Amino acid sequence: MQTELSKQLGVEHAVFGFTPFPAVAAAISRAGGFGVLGAVRYTAPDDLKRDLDWIEAHIDGRPYGLDVVMPAKKVEGVTEADVEAMIPDSHRQFVRDTLAKYGVPELAEGEASGWRITGWMEQVARSQLDVAFDYPIRLLANALGSPPPDVVARAHERGVLVAALAGSARHALKHKAAGIDIVVAQGYEAGGHTGEIASMVLTPEAVDAVAPLPVLAAGGIGSGRQIAAALALGAQGVWLGSLWLTTAEADLHSPALTRKLLAAGSGDTVRSRALTGKPARQLRTEWTDAWDDPHGPGTLPMPLQGLLVADAVSRIQKYEVDPLLGTPVGQIVGRMNDVRSVQAVFDDLTRGFEQAVDHVNRIAGRSGQ
Amino acid sequence: MQTELSKQLGVEHAVFGFTPFPAVAAAISRAGGFGVLGAVRYTAPDDLKRDLDWIEAHIDGRPYGLDVVMPAKKVEGVTEADVEAMIPDSHRQFVRDTLAKYGVPELAEGEASGWRITGWMEQVARSQLDVAFDYPIRLLANALGSPPPDVVARAHERGVLVAALAGSARHALKHKAAGIDIVVAQGYEAGGHTGEIASMVLTPEAVDAVAPLPVLAAGGIGSGRQIAAALALGAQGVWLGSLWLTTAEADLHSPALTRKLLAAGSGDTVRSRALTGKPARQLRTEWTDAWDDPHGPGTLPMPLQGLLVADAVSRIQKYEVDPLLGTPVGQIVGRMNDVRSVQAVFDDLTRGFEQAVDHVNRIAGRSGQ
Ligand SMILES: Cc1cc2nc3c(=O)[nH]c(=O)nc-3n(C[C@H](O)[C@H](O)[C@H](O)COP(=O)(O)O)c2cc1C
Ligand SMILES: Cc1cc2nc3c(=O)[nH]c(=O)nc-3n(C[C@H](O)[C@H](O)[C@H](O)COP(=O)(O)O)c2cc1C
User: Fold this and answer.
1) Distance of alpha carbon B358 from alpha carbon A229, whole angstroms
2) Predicted confidence (pLDDT) per residue in A150-168, tens digit
3) Cα B228 off chain centre by
4) Which among A67, A72, A74 has a CA at the least distance from the CA of A177?
5) B332 — contact with chain A (CB < 8 Å)?
6) Highest taxon of the source (chains A, B) (predicted)?
């Protein structure tokens, strides 16, 4: 499964894997794909350093990348306290009431939330980059907009390719104008922040809009058939996020959450603003229902919502409060039904891809070929 | 592009086309696909008879089918007047106010609405079948649920294959249990009544759920690349509805509506209950916005909503009131950018399919083949 892009990056398969877990990223690259470590949760540069060191020690010299979250709209000189002050009391009360209703215990004094606002702020993303550029990363991806020009320039100086996620052809064109190298076209069915246009329609639109820039198809991919489909749509590779969440190498810190993912069907996700204030696909839970209820207070805009619910989400996760327990995940969750190693998942993907190509060739009357 | 199903039906290409227009249905079959006439708007059996006669005279002996709408839930002994009586006055007032706001003229006395409830009722669908079974139709498709057992039996006695639309693997399994022959797996991106699961995820789920029954992929398909993708996902063919709306043979009765379709992008549709009370993808207009507005009265359940807005929709269409003018259509509308003959569209689809297969073979390292 070789495209110009996979050749350029020196990987065997044009399969890119986004993951917040260093062990998964390294395993994806070792299996012949391209692992991309999500950096948003690294608020302390030293933690990122430690995990990049770990990757370097475990990736057998294979190429890998980093994903940061630099929102397109810059918020200058605003502190976390300023944002805190913008949150209405009624919303805070709603959080307290909902947690109380389900008997969610408090965090111990000083226990940090995993979801601080800081990871979304440009200073933090920049401090992540300062760390990452000391490592031989081959790709820098950005969610939520084009990266700033100086970041693109800095990456290019070091021979690092720049990718950006896009939910529409219009976004993809903006990225192209910003000088990026790869568009990740992310469809409606994807886990995480996502738009309304489904991969079947979005992928070829993005491909045609930014040609000759390469497009990676993201959203709804979890089998070799879906990889073949994405490549038929014109993508130069695929970008998978959800599928890795139930691999043996993933570390969700919650057996209950893993069980929920394994049991969920493709109809058990929702695109909700509950997590960050922007629509993100995630497991549908009584927590997302509470926020999406027209009789509730509704969600606040980013970054207020993320800050408002940060501690609550930590508490729900830590104490595994089942009806409220969720995670970003896409519709492909319906096919994530057992825990397997990244290598086993990869073997399935590549074998399934070959079978799908055979199948299409038979239909096209090229079965002798 | 031959699958077991296309061979069984004796068509050259596994491309099924749903259309409300006899001229389009005939042209699809003449081009080597399989035309399926939508019957929902035929409230008078004689009109359907007239149009099937027309098809017979223009289809060069090629096979074709009929699509009826038999809602899964039977409404026994309920008349149109009973349903009318269930509509709150406040909703009628909202319709009047909205039409007045945009200066929509009244219909002339006795002008029939194109969207009467009757087309959705089982008696009417049955009267359509009484007509259709006198014609050599090869396929009977049903929207909104499995057809009743006696209808399936009647079709099978005549050698007519039965298809049903499904928005989830669960629906697909219900259809299989009802003895149908073909599942049309219709993704979120499709025009018309549709569920939440996108084609990329839904198609393989439905394929695996009902195997060995054949699945047709519907939703978001308008190019040969998308056909190749659908077949890679395991479908035995594709089922297209939106793409034909802007063909030369289509008869929308409204140049303004055709212009809107040609200009719309993939982000200009919405899945709204405004038309029938069940979520259906359609052009987003100020009419759908009014119904989807959280400060408005909201929509009524099927069949009330359809009855409530029937005359209003007729008036908007007849007088081409631009900001309110819409139609069911899928996200593929972004690629419907010129008026072409069905044959020209078909040539594009088949040529694009061959190119997509070449492309995937190159990536799979089978370019010599
Ligand atoms: C748990 C989770 C967290 C994610 N976080 C990010 C992120 O921080 N940055 C980003 O660019 N994309 C993020 N995404 C989106 C992925 O990069 C990817 O586009 C998406 O998962 C692809 O669709 P799929 O979920 O159907 O595989 C996340 C996805 C998941 C499932
Ligand atoms: C204008 C229009 C009317 C439709 N009406 C019906 C219908 O009466 N019965 C039905 O089974 N499907 C109906 N559909 C859905 C189509 O059968 C088909 O599943 C759908 O259009 C496929 O997705 P696409 O729009 O992306 O091609 C309609 C679609 C459109 C665009």
Assistant:
1) 13
2) 999 999 999 999 999 999 9
3) 21
4) A72
5) yes
6) Bacteria
